[in-house]
Design brief:
Blueprint: H1 7-19, H2 31-35, H3 49-54, E1 57-59, E2 66-68, E3 74-75, H4 84-91, H5 96-110, H6 118-121, H7 129-132, H8 171-183, H9 189-219, H10 229-241, H11 251-259, H12 300-305, E4 309-316, E5 324-333, E6 357-362, H13 366-369, E7 372-386, H14 390-401, H15 406-424
Antiparallel strand pairs: 1-2, 2-3, 4-7, 5-6, 5-7
Length: 426
């Protein structure tokens, strides 16, 4: 929250002072002037002096007594949970300073328990917020004509049945619908429909505003300036790492890398597997016990992108160099080739197939140690490399761990994976 008043705020306030009775202290019209008396405030006061000054209060030097510079309201006996803006407006809602600030700070503080619903809070009062901060319910299939909007009562529970989900409305959801209808004194289904749409539009706005907050607090970038999350992620990566990347302008090199792009490894290493243990059906105690296990790699893209990556100095070089290289080669794999460290000893196979491969790109030479035979080297590229992307990957990984909901969890996963996809674009 910005505790300083802008010059426009002060100008507007001065205009109000001149046009209306303003029974207080003009010398405290600025935030800085109101903050100064708090220098002698007892340190144990359960309120923040910056918040008190921002709400228009000046300290009077007696215990915890404060006075509004605008309306002269005197308050004391502050409790830890008291919200200055709420207390100020509760005791004198007609205060010019409160009225001037109602559009920004007041709404923020008055809805402190619904801080994620700022847009909804601008149109609904506090006691109604629990009804408008959850997904509403509506009899979609019942409303099949304009005449239905003139119905003067909430349709029955059976009218909320959905053929799409093949289910009716839950009891708690129907109770919520009745509470909304009664609380907002809806006279027709049309009024309920308008309210339903208004709530959903405001909630959508709040969802996006919270999404913008997450992006601003994490990357200091506004998501509203981007069409897609991958676009946002690529800019966030460049901004966070500060890494300058060389533009790949050599056409032959570009084609070499484009030709090296291939899909991920997808295969059924063993087409049929059957477990044999006490918990499996048709257990055969005469046979060796066995289990099935599903193996998955977490953060696969993130792990690969945390390795040393090229960023500059791409060129064709001699075979001997202290810098990183990419090889374009022909190769084949010996039929007897197996990997010594296997997840399972029942099926010794690591590659899709062992047919001859031509014109493939290889970066890591560990494959040679495991039976790959290089038959011809077409080209060698060298480049400057470092783990420049690792800290951005780690940032999103940590944010994913701290995610407050499934949306944030999936979002930070995408922010990592999208970097791979963006670098594949021409």
């Amino acid at each position: 929250m910005n505790l300083q008043k802008t010059s426009n705020d002060i100008s507007s306030l001065v205009s109000l002072v001149r046009s209306k009775s303003f029974p207080t202290y003009s010398e405290y019209i600025t935030f800085t002037s109101r903050l100064k008396p708090y220098d002698i405030l007892p340190s144990k006061i359960p309120q923040n002096k910056y918040l008190l000054a921002d709400c228009g209060f000046i300290y009077r030097g007696v215990k915890y007594v404060v006075e509004c510079f605008s309306c002269g309201l005197v308050l004391h006996d502050w409790k830890k949970d008291d919200i200055p803006w709420i207390e100020h407006s509760r005791h004198n809602l007609e205060c010019i300073y409160v009225l001037l600030s109602k559009g920004n700070h007041f709404v923020e503080y008055y809805t402190h328990n619904f801080e994620n619903f700022r847009e909804a809070a601008k149109l609904f009062v506090g006691e109604n917020m629990p009804l408008v901060t959850r997904k509403g319910v509506y009899p979609y299939e019942y409303t099949d004509s304009w005449a239905k909007l003139d119905v003067s009562c909430l349709p029955g529970e059976e009218e909320f049945y959905s053929t799409l989900t093949e289910s009716g409305i839950k009891e708690e959801d129907f109770k919520h619908a009745k509470a909304v209808w009664n609380n907002f004194k809806c006279k027709t289904l049309g009024e309920y429909s308008d309210l339903y749409l208004k709530i959903h539009v405001l909630l959508l706005a709040d969802v996006f505003e919270n999404f913008r907050d997450v992006c601003m607090s994490t990357y200091n970038l506004d998501a509203a300036h981007y069409y897609t999350a991958p676009d946002l992620s690529f800019d966030a990566m460049l901004k966070y790492t500060g890494q300058k990347l060389e533009l790949l302008s050599d056409y032959d090199m570009l084609l070499m890398f484009e030709n090296g792009i291939c899909g991920g490894l997808v295969q059924a290493s063993m087409r049929y597997a059957k477990a044999n243990n006490l918990k499996s059906p048709n257990y055969d105690e005469t046979k060796e016990k066995s289990w099935l296990v599903y193996q998955d790699c977490n953060n696969l893209y993130g792990y690969a992108m945390s390795e040393y990556m090229p960023y500059d100095g791409l060129s064709e070089l001699t075979p001997k160099s202290a810098r990183g290289h990419v090889y374009e080669v022909d190769y084949h794999i010996r039929n007897t080739c197996t990997i010594s460290i296997m997840i399972s000893h029942f099926y010794h196979k690591i590659a899709h197939n062992k047919a001859q491969k031509c014109g493939n790109l290889w970066r890591h030479l560990s494959a040679i140690d495991n039976g790959l035979i290089v038959e011809k080297v077409h080209r060698v590229l060298e480049f400057s490399q470092s783990d420049w992307l690792a800290k951005y990957i780690q940032l999103n990984t940590e944010m994913k761990k701290k995610a407050r909901n499934e949306f944030e969890k999936d979002f930070f996963k995408l922010m990592n994976n999208a970097i791979f996809g963006k670098t594949m674009q021409s």
